[in-house]
Automatic annotation (TrEMBL):
Compartments it resides in: Cytoplasm
Protein name (database record): Protein-L-isoaspartate O-methyltransferase
PROSITE patterns, A to Z: PCMT
Catalytic residue positions: S76
EC number in record: 2.1.1.77
Family of the protein in this entry: Belongs to the methyltransferase superfamily. L-isoaspartyl/D-aspartyl protein methyltransferase family.
Organism: Negadavirga shengliensis
GO molecular function: protein-L-isoaspartate (D-aspartate) O-methyltransferase activity
UniProt cross-references to CDD domains, sorted A to Z: AdoMet_MTases (cd02440)
Record keywords, A-Z: Cytoplasm, Methyltransferase, S-adenosyl-L-methionine, Transferase
Catalytic activities: [protein]-L-isoaspartate + S-adenosyl-L-methionine = [protein]-L-isoaspartate alpha-methyl ester + S-adenosyl-L-homocysteine
Family matches, as InterPro entries: PCMT (IPR000682), SAM-dependent_MTases_sf (IPR029063)
Length: 226
């Protein structure tokens, strides 16, 4: 019984260390690269990224790079998550679809800001783990589905914004159909294994306007691992 207060003190100390690591991450990796949206910066300060990476990676959770999360997949670099989130101009009240749940980190960052997050993952064990972890962290506005994100999640659409976090060779047309008027899709497009271009699509009066935002590198969008 005597050891209980010591464990508590150690846990508080560790939590404080993670909080400091997040502050530093936001300052040195995110603000320094030009992200200014206060909602995005606050969400990045808040989400406990170390709870969404494998135990063996906890010490690296706030490092400036992607990390392995098992099943050959990665959790995106914190800056990329902040950048993609800022690109959809997230606001309270929005309904957002994410393709490629992975660790659940991008979904958690979105869920801090918007009303509802729908996220689709094709690798079942990853999706199930993210769902459990996110629930454990108290997120009730994140909904995880296992399936091929090419099809989107039509039952809950249309969406204010759609974020694709795996690199596709083309924009899946079901996603365009599930986007609201005035909404945005952010998606890395390019050949497998090569550098891709991050593309922003905007739906205005039914027409799609495309902007190329520059080179990025993501794990591939797959169609066949179901
Ligand atoms: N957003 C994640 C990063 C994910 S990496 C995070 O924050 O951790 C990309 C993810 O996309 C991988 O988990 C991969 O399995 C998934 N993926 C690839 N193709 C997919 C598809 N067709 N549908 C849904 N998910 C897909």
């Amino acid at each position: 019984m005597k050891s209980l207060p010591i464990i508590l003190i150690l846990l508080l100390f560790q939590n404080n260390q993670y909080k400091e690591a997040r502050e530093k991450m936001v300052k040195t990796q995110i603000v320094s690269r030009g992200i200014t949206d206060p909602l995005v910066l606050d969400a990045m300060r808040k989400v406990e990224r170390h709870l969404l990476v494998p135990n063996s990676q906890r010490g690296n959770a706030y490092a400036d790079r992607p990390l392995p999360i098992g099943d050959g997949q990665t959790i995106s670099q914190p800056y990329i998550v902040a950048y993609m989130t800022e690109l959809i101009q997230p606001k309270k009240g929005m309904k957002v679809l994410e393709i490629g749940t992975g660790s659940g980190y991008q979904a958690a960052v979105l869920a801090e800001i918007v009303e509802e997050v729908y996220t689709v993952e094709i690798v079942e064990p990853l999706g199930k783990r993210a769902e459990k972890d996110l629930k454990g962290m108290g997120y009730e506005n994140i909904h995880v589905k296992i399936g091929d994100g090419y099809q989107g999640w039509p039952e809950n659409g249309p969406y204010d914004a759609i974020l694709v976090t795996a690199a596709a060779e083309e924009v899946p047309s079901p996603l365009v159909d599930q986007l609201k008027e005035g909404g945005r899709i952010i998606i890395p497009i390019g050949p497998r294994g090569k550098t891709q271009e991050l593309i922003r699509l905007e739906k205005r009066k039914g027409k799609i306007r495309e902007t190329n935002l520059g080179a990025v590198r993501f794990v591939p969008f797959t169609r066949d691992s179901l």
